[in-house]
Design a protein that fits this description.
This protein has 13 helices and 9 strands. By secondary structure, it is α+β, with helices and mostly antiparallel strands. Strand 4 and strand 5 form a beta hairpin. The chain is globular and about 65 Å long.
């Protein structure tokens, strides 16, 4: 792979060249990446022919995948830039997205750092008020092309976004890194149902504290597990909050800035701005990979 200027490399992929090498090593390095199979199928109803893509430097294929994720480049443009056919570019991209997804899934439990491990490092001031903090949770919507089926159109319609969307639950640790990302749900789902269907409870431990937005009225769902959910106080029929509630509201809002920043970083991957119906089968994998790549952002890397 040709050496690019450091700033240009980061602009194209979202990570530095040093973190690119760290990512490549995490994925298995040459030992694993050189053994990836790139097959595509062509044929007629009576006959299927299997072709194999010409072997290429795996770092170039990873670079191509990161460029498409970060910049949202079309398959045709990437084919011209990399000197490949559109079919080959598509196959490389889908192969590497699936591969990266499976590799990241292997550390899903470790990524959701326990509260005890978070306390071993220096806790940011905004989280010192919250004892036993585990994750800060929020939802985010990805706009999609209107599905062909009318029922799916209704199920994915989000009154909040006034568009067809797929919604995800994301959680960040005290260091601002992504610790949890759920599978996608149809955009009409409520925050409570999203939490219930996300499967996050299997990563939580008794005594954990979750910081959430007002829409996540889920305390009763985790009472039996000994987990506490803290959200900004509701105003209700009152004209104003009490001084204690005002202080709590400010502290929660200050802490929740990190999950909002993580969502913004995920949405910086331009491929999520033009989700077609053909992308829907692997949208969960793409979003999961993008969320994990946020942890390779230079701002999230801490030298120990």
């Amino acid at each position: 792979m040709k050496l690019l200027h450091l700033l240009e490399f980061c602009r194209l992929t979202g990570i530095t060249q040093e973190n690119f090498e760290a990512l490549y090593d995490f994925l298995g390095g040459d030992e694993v990446c050189l053994r990836l199979k790139y097959n595509y199928r062509r044929g007629t109803p009576n006959r299927l022919i299997y072709r194999t893509i010409t072997a290429r430097e795996p770092r170039e294929n990873l670079f191509l995948t990161l460029v498409r994720l970060r910049r949202g480049e079309s398959l045709q443009d990437l084919a011209l830039n990399f000197g490949l056919s559109k079919t080959h570019v598509s196959t490389i991209f889908y192969t590497w997205v699936q591969f990266m997804y499976l590799q990241f899934k292997r550390i899903e439990k470790e990524m959701c750092v326990t509260r005890h491990d978070q306390k071993k490092n220096k806790v940011p001031p905004c989280y010192k008020f919250f004892k036993n903090f585990r994750l800060c949770l929020d939802s985010f919507h990805i706009k999609i092309q209107a599905p062909y089926h009318y029922r799916q159109q209704g199920n994915t319609w989000s009154p909040y976004k006034s568009d067809n969307t797929i919604v995800y639950l994301i959680g960040t640790t005290s260091r601002g890194s992504v610790g949890f990302i759920s599978s996608g749900q149809e955009g009409s789902i409520s925050d409570r149902a999203l939490f219930e269907n996300s499967g996050i409870k299997r990563f939580l431990e008794p005594g954990d504290l979750l910081l959430v937005d007002r829409g996540f009225t889920v305390q009763d769902l985790v009472d039996a597990d000994g987990i506490k959910v803290l959200h900004p106080p509701f105003l209700g029929d009152r004209n104003r909050l009490s001084p204690e509630e005002e202080l709590l509201f400010k502290k929660i809002s200050h802490a929740r800035v990190h999950v909002e920043r993580a969502i913004r970083k995920v949405k910086c991957f331009q491929i999520l701005r033009n989700v077609t119906n053909r992308m829907l089968p692997i949208l969960d994998q793409i979003v999961y990979v993008c969320a994990c790549l946020v942890n390779f952002d230079p701002d999230n890397i801490r030298v120990v």
